[in-house]
Amino acid sequence: MACRIHHVEQHRSVIRGIEAMTLISNHYFPRHSHDQLGIGVIAFGVQRSWSGVGQVEASAGDVIMCSPGEMHDGVPLEGRVRGWRIMYFDPVLVGSKVEDDVAGRIEVTRPVARDPLLAQNFARLFASMTTPQSDDLGREENLVRCLVCALRRHGARRLSYNNGPSPPVAKAIQRLDFAPNESVPLSELAALAGVSRFQLLRGFVREIGTTPHAYLVQRRVCLAKQVLAAGETPAQAAIAAGFADQSHMTRAFVRHLGITPSRYQLAVA
Which of 96, 83, 51 lies closest to 69, judged by CA? Predict the structure, then answer.
């Protein structure tokens, strides 16, 4: 079995609402989603991902993208190490920067694109975001240029399903989103949805791409990120997000995001 290699640098953010990461890893990221728009570029190696358009592969030079809430995973081809840089953008921030240039929702249609112009724009933005000496005007110009390029060339319609999830699944999601810090049995979700437990489980996996429990864990990770960004301790964040304890939260963080809660907080505080 190949040894695990996983090096992550969560860069200190210079603009609220933007996260920047550099990763070199053969870690297998399970199916999950982000509340932000994600744009990155593969530096080396090959990654295979499940997405709303099916299985896709990204190799060196390819741009990788995900819409807010879009389910995806990340698997190194044959377990080999791959490297990439990625940035996550809060949808509210994106909307404020591109509202005069891009119509419609903040979504991308292609999880992988061979787009040298976008890759170049991303590289400029990443450099200005991770260099403290960069001036604000130049950084904002790079931000707008990168976002407009991505959304004009690769946006903007929902991938996973045209009209949203079915009513039973939608009701279950609404319950999980409303209070992710609270435990809820499958029987309660099924009763809310008006279907059997097996019907809900099967429909959830088919439409969302993961199980209700896995979805709940990722919502808890997202909630913990918000609490950490607000300055609370990891122990407090674990309690607020509904994890059994801090160690459970840390394992979920590393599995889904590839970084510990403490390192995440240091970058975004």
Answer: 51
32 within some domain: yes
Cβ-contact 122, 40 below 8 angstroms: yes
* Average pLDDT of adjacent 10-residue blocks, the chain of 269 residues: 84 89 94 93 96 89 94 91 96 87 77 96 94 83 93 67 78 95 93 93 90 94 94 95 95 91 87
**29 shares a domain with 123:** yes
What is the pTM assigned to this prediction? 0.85
CA distance 55 to 49: 6
* Angstrom distance (rounded) from CA 40 to CA 161: 24
Determine the pLDDT at residue 103: 66
Which residue in 41, 245, 43 sits closest to 149, CA to CA?
41
Strand partners, 85: 22, 41
Task: Show the tokens assigned to 216.
Answer: 């709940």
Same domain for 143 and 22: yes
Q: Considering just the CA atoms, what is the radius of gyration of the chain in Å?
A: 19
Distance CA 215, CA 221 (A): 10
Do 45 and 104 belong to one domain?
Answer: yes
